[in-house]
């Protein structure tokens, strides 16, 4: 596995492997799959705005999960399917940032606190920036949490389930707001955690280099 590739257990899932194999044999490209993740995220974001509808929450959950599925399959089709492209690295990152922003910002508006949604989206983007910066200075990219992409989306999915339950039970909607608060705080901690890892790796690399030349 590439040191700059996110470790995902679901890559070995038979269903996902089967879909990836089928797409690898088709005319569909990994970049198209990456772009599709933004479309699914947009559909999920639109559904999130209908916070009073349990059906809309189901659509939002589907949008989130299909977005994640695309994020897994695009890499499998590109690497295992032998369909890498020269712009693959760009498509591997940019659609993710757009998808995160769409879903988190929409969740902010749905919960009645747009600023929290945008803050969560910004901090989510910063976690990726710190990770990629580590790669830019020649280090292994760190996908550590506590609020990496899969954790953010898992929490947002649970919040959608809880929001649907709140609607059915005629309760005031607070779960989405709580989830966004956790995502924002967790993403901030993740930025710190990854930055500290970069500093540690740079110091270790410098020490090793000094020992080599001693």
From TrEMBL:
InterPro entries the record matches: CDP-OH_PTrfase_TM_dom (IPR043130)
Keywords: Membrane, Transferase, Transmembrane, Transmembrane helix
Membrane-traversing stretches: 34-51, 118-139, 151-170, 176-193
One GO MF term: transferase activity
Segments forming a coiled coil: none
The keyword Transferase is assigned to this record: yes
Protein name as catalogued: CDP-alcohol phosphatidyltransferase family protein
């Amino acid at each position: 596995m590439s040191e700059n590739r996110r470790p995902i257990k679901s890559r070995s899932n038979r269903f996902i492997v089967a879909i990836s194999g089928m797409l690898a044999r088709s005319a569909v490209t990994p970049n198209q799959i990456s772009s599709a993740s933004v479309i699914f995220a947009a559909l999920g974001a639109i559904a999130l705005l209908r916070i009073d509808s349990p059906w809309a929450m189901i659509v939002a959950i589907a949008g989130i999960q299909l977005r994640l599925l695309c994020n897994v399959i695009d890499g499998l089709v590109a690497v295992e399917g032998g369909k890498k492209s020269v712009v693959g690295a760009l498509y591997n990152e940019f659609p993710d940032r757009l998808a995160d922003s769409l879903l988190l910002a929409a969740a902010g508006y749905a919960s009645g606190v747009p600023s929290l949604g945008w803050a969560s989206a910004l901090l989510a983007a910063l976690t990726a920036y710190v990770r990629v910066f580590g790669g830019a200075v020649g280090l292994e990219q760190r996908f550590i949490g506590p609020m990496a992409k899969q954790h953010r989306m898992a929490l947002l999915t649970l919040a959608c389930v809880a929001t649907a339950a709140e609607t059915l039970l005629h309760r005031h909607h607070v779960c989405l707001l709580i989830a966004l608060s956790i995502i924002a705080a967790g993403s901030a901690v993740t930025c710190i955690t990854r930055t500290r890892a970069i500093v540690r790796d740079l110091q270790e690399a410098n020490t090793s280099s000094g020992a080599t030349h001693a």
